Amino acid sequence: MRPAFLFDLDGVIFDTEGQYSVFWDEIGKEHFSDSGFAGKIKGQTLVQIFDLYFKDNLPLQEEIRDRLYRLEREMDYRYVPGVEDFLSELKSAGYPAAVVTSSNRDKMENVYRAHPDFSGRFARIFTGEDFTRSKPAPDCYLLGMKTFGTAPEDTFIFEDSFSGLQAARTSGGNVIALATTNLREAVAPYASLVIDDFRGLTAGMLLKK
C-alpha cells in the first residue's frame, strides 16, 4: 500500500506556535489569571475553546475572535526549516500528503495570501470544520487515512503538541514529533521519532524504519 503523510500546521509546517502562545496566555491572564492558558487549549478549535471557557458570553467571544483574526492576518507564516524540501520530495515521489489542522478555513485564507503556492503542495487540506471531535480525539487523522485509503501502519503523522501527538498515537499511525513547541524528552514517549525540524529528513529514511 502506498504510504500517506499527514501534517499538523502550526508548529509543524509553520513556526507560529510562539505567536499563538503569547496571544492565548494573554487572554488567560486577562480572564483567569492563568499565564499558562495557551498550553491548555492547544489543538482545540475556536468553537471548542469558546464552549469550554467562554460559554454564553457572546460579546467576549466576539472580542477574542476579532483579536485572533487580527493576529492571524498579521502573523509571520515562516516555514519550519527543511519542510519545503521535504514536501517537494513527497510530491515528486507521488506520495499523498495532507494538512490536518484544528484551524478554521478563515485562518487558511491568511496562509494562502502569505504563500500562494501552499495548497498546491498537498492533495488535501483538512480544517476544524471537517471533523466533529478535535484533537486529542483521533478523528482528524482517521479521516486522513480514510480519504487516502491507507492503513495506520502506512501513514506517517507529524505533530508537535501533546493533544495532537495523543490524537496521532491513538489513530495507530507512525508518529513523528517535532520538538518545536515542547522539549524533546517531553514529546518522545508519544512518537517513534523526534526531530527538531525537517532538515536532512527524507521519505526514504522513514519508510526504511
Concise overview:
This protein starts with a strand and ends with a helix. It is built from ten helices and six strands.
Description:
With 209 residues, the protein is α/β, with parallel strands linked by helices. The protein has ten helices and six strands. It has a six-stranded parallel beta sheet with strand order 3-2-1-4-5-6. Helix 6 links the parallel strand 2 and strand 3. The longest helix is centred in the N-terminal third of the chain and has 17 residues. The radius of gyration is 17 Å and the shape is globular.
The total strand number stands at 6
- Identify the overall geometry: globular
Q: Name the structural class.
A: alpha/beta
Distance between the termini: 16 Å
Number of helices: 10
Multimeric status of the protein: single chain
Strand content: 5-15%
Low-pLDDT segments, ≥5 res: none
Q: What is the C-alpha radius of gyration, as a whole number of Å? A: 17 Å
Q: What kind of sheet is the major sheet?
A: 6 strands, parallel
Strands of the widest sheet, in order across it, are 3-2-1-4-5-6
Give the helix proportion (percent range): 40-55%
Topology at a glance:
Blueprint: E1 4-7, H1 17-32, H2 37-41, H3 46-53, H4 58-74, H5 83-93, E2 97-100, H6 105-114, E3 124-126, H7 139-148, E4 155-159, H8 162-171, E5 174-178, H9 184-187, E6 193-195, H10 203-208
Key words describing this protein structure:
209 residues; globular; 6 strands; alpha/beta; 10 helices
